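Request:
You are asked to prepare a plain-text protein record giving the amino acid sequence and the backbone structure tokens, at your earliest convenience.
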Amino acid sequence: MRKKILVIYTSVGYGHKKIGENIADVLRADHEVDTMDILTAVGGKTASQGTKIYLNILKYLPGLWKFFYTNKLFLAATLPFRTTVARFKAIKVANLIINEHYDIIICTQVTASAIISYLKQKKMFNGKFVIAFSDFHLHPYWLFKNADLYLANIVEQKELMIAKGIPEEIIYICGITLPIPEEVDKEQARIKYGLTGNDKMILVLGGGRGLGIESETVSQLIKSDAKVFIVCGLNAEVKNKMEKFFSGPNVKIFGFIDYLQELYAIADIIVTKPGGLTLAECLEQRAPILVTSYIPGGEKMNLDYLRDNNLVMPEFMDVLGPVEDELKTGSFAKDIRSNEKVKNVVQHGSIIKEAINNL
């Protein structure tokens, strides 16, 4: 039966947004699907200031973010108030959806989940409430008692949820949802980006907001014979800094690129931080990934999972040596091509379609 579905994400984190859009695109083949940016929906100075505070904490006080994200006493004290706080934003969302009569609302971020949980609790939304994850760990803030379905990414999340008393039958393991990849003509892509002959290329990423691109790492990488491509995302400050200190014939610096698949496909090694979406996109291309920085808390938990499953390169004190070794031997590239875990992490929506059709 064709259903009317709303997918809610937040544009604060590009990964949450893109995964929400990917899920929406998958479901449009069988259902009527709308999307909503919760940041735009709640609007106002409070939302804008909240985003600034969040980004400044990540930039200047990452240890504080780790405390918020992982401290058990803090989490136990604040968990009961998620929906209480959400009620101040929920009325705006209720006014936007009241005449739409959605059968299902899917949330890819906790602010949206808390709002829909509150609306469902107050019987202001009577449809099905679905929560989709976008990382490789489990956080208690993501779980709500009145959720009807969870779209988890890995089996370890499901096992932890069952241990917390969540019924197994409402948990589907879906991986990170990506579009079905287009075939990339690597030869043409190399020509497009100025790579010739036996040129090797190191791709440096910092996510949509350009976080995690470190000058110290880049200064080591440019000592290699490889071309170094740096994608700074929406972060003009980082882009200007890179252009000031690292311009040269072997360095290309980009701002935000919406279509990274060509660069993923022609990269010999990718240096990045461990955001869920970025890692899934890199793994889909079976590219060797070296993580050199991370945001304490969630990204560190992602990294632990990926290293435990040999999906990213091991940790090294020195960056240049392992990078040059990989460029020479391609040993990790061979390993990642044969790693069966990649199929579990990266999916293209078939399980999500099944889960929603059965709901």
